[in-house]
Amino acid sequence: MNNALGDEQRDALQELMNISMGQAANSLARLIEAKITLSIPKISSVTPSEFVAMLSSEGMWHTRQSFLGSVKGEVVSLQSRLGCEAIAELMEYQLPLSDTTREELLLELSNILAGACLSGFAEQLALTAKLSMPTVFDPEKLSPDHYRWANTLSMEVEFKIESSQFDSKIVICLEEDSISTLLNRLNSLLE
Amino acid sequence: MPIPVTIADDSMMSRKAVRRALPADWDIEITEATNGKEALAAVEAGKAEVLFLDLTMPELDGFGVLRYLHEHHAKTIVIVISADIQPEAKKLVDSLGAFRFLHKPLNAEQLSQVLFDVGLI
After folding, report:
1. Are A77 and A166 in contact (CB under 8 A)?
2. Closest-CA distance of chain B to residue A30, Å
3. ipTM of this predicted complex?
4. Domains in chain A, start-ordered, CATH in brackets?
């Protein structure tokens, strides 16, 4: 089975993501009442060891949520700690954030971002994927073999909010069957 | 004589989507640009009486292209086609003189309506 991502497929995925991130940014912009500048999403395939390395990046908060449907997998989101503070400030939360408030904010942000990423695939490729509720986790407390994903797609998006920067990385882990399903749909879109 | 039209978008899929959405019987000559600089070069070369413009692009983004055209009082008819659907983006695009702002994914009927509104078809 060839699950490699070709240039055309990458371009198509990037554009689907661009469209869904536009929708996510719009929801986020309404939430924080600020204009958000979107970057071009970066799409890449990630090996299991790269994935573990990615999770150990410093200065980020991590959340995860699984999804089920005609494609199955898990979405892991990484959000910069500084960026979260900046958003909290814009939303007039009291700083420094309490652990409970921060968790609430993180879960809300990851729901918006992961939800948009996934709906980008699902709606535009006529696939179904239902997201579960996100949870915050600490990658240091999980053993590497916890991640059984052999194939993951990483979609990096970066939002700039006024003067502050909010970096966010959304990693979509797909089961092998789901990757083939996704690639087949992409290919038919490109015909 | 065919109307010179430029489609500026960094995504090949999106350029294809615009091509597909254009009325089949519209007599045009299409140039493709993959970033803002190429879009401006197409305008300078007289290849863009109508410019379909994406906003999020490398090198020079769509806002940069609009700003340049606005400052140089260019006659190009710009139709922005973007995934950035924030009201602020629309306001900025309007203030820079774009003729219309269409959201991605592009709707062919909407596009035809816009071309009709501007008197192109």
Report:
1. no
2. 9
3. 0.79
4. 7-190 (3.40.1550.10)
Q: Which of A26, A36, A112, A186 to mutate to test the interface with B (most CBs of B within 10 A)?
A: A26
Domain B3-117, what architecture? 3-Layer(aba) Sandwich (3.40)
Closest CA to A179 of A2, A3, A34: A3
Q: Using CA of residue B90, residue B91, residue B95, residue B96, what is the dihedral sign?
A: negative
CA atoms A19, A20, A21, A22: torsion sign: positive
- Under an 8 A CB cutoff, do B105 and A19 touch? yes
Residue type, B4: P
Name the residue with tokens 């430029």. Answer: B6
* The residue to which tokens 């299991």 are assigned: A48
The one-digit pLDDT tens for each residue of chain A (191 residues) are 345 678 888 899 889 888 988 888 888 888 888 888 888 888 888 887 888 888 887 889 999 999 999 998 888 899 989 888 888 888 888 888 899 999 999 998 888 888 888 887 788 888 999 999 999 988 887 765 666 676 777 777 777 887 777 888 888 888 878 888 888 888 888 87
- Between A12, A29, A35, which is nearest B13 by CB? A12
Q: Does A188 touch chain B (CB under 8 A)?
A: no
Residue spans of the domains in chain B: they are: 3-117
CB contact under 8 A, B83 and A22: yes
**A23, A35, A39: residue with CB nearest B88:** A35
Residue A185's nearest CA partner among A128, A114, A117, A131 is A128
